[in-house]
Structure formats: C-alpha cells, structure tokens
Amino acid sequence: MAKILVTMPDEFLNRVDGIATSEQRTRSELIREALRTYMRRNVITDNAKAVRNAELLEKMLG
Predict the structure, then answer these.
(1) Which residue, 2, 18, 33, 36, has fewest beta-carbon neighbours within 10 Å?
(2) What is the pLDDT of the chain when averaged over all its residues?
(3) Would the pTM count as exceeding 0.90?
(4) Rounded to an integer, what distance in angstroms lies between the CA atom of residue 12 and that of residue 30?
(5) The predicted structure's pLDDT at residue 35
(6) pLDDT score of 4
(7) pLDDT tens-digit profile of 15-34?
C-alpha cells in the first residue's frame, strides 16, 4: 500500500481525529472511506449528467 502526505489545517485534522476516535477507526480508514464516498458520488453525478445530456440531444434531434 502506498503512503501519501496530505496537508490540512490543524483544526480540520482535529475534527477528523475526533470522528475517527468516536467511530473506533484509524485516521487512514476514515479518510479512505471519505474518498471512496466522494468518488462514488462523482461517478453517479457524471452518469446522471450524461443521461440528461443524451435526453436533451435526442429531443433536439427529434
């Protein structure tokens, strides 16, 4: 597994650590899950946008 370096404000990191502690997970686990969720939402949004664009194009072309 690769390691990365991410910078963030101390206050934000404190909030991340608080959530990780309350959920009994590591900081890394929490951040990985957050990124997975972000990527899933982006795919869904992109797919929905593609469908809307296709529908608009079909209407324009008749």
Answers:
(1) 2
(2) 91
(3) no
(4) 13
(5) 93
(6) 93
(7) 999 999 999 999 999 999 99
Q: From CA 45, how far away is CA 37, in angstroms rounded?
A: 12
State the residue for tokens 């992109």: 46
Alpha carbons 40 and 26: distance in angstroms, whole number: 21
What the block records as the tokens of 42 is 């982006």
* SS (HEC) of the chain: CCCCCCCCCHHHHHHHHHHHHHCCCCHHHHHHHHHHHHHHHHHHHHHHHHHHHHHHHHHHHC
Closest listed residue to residue 17, CA positions, set 30, 5, 8, 4? 30
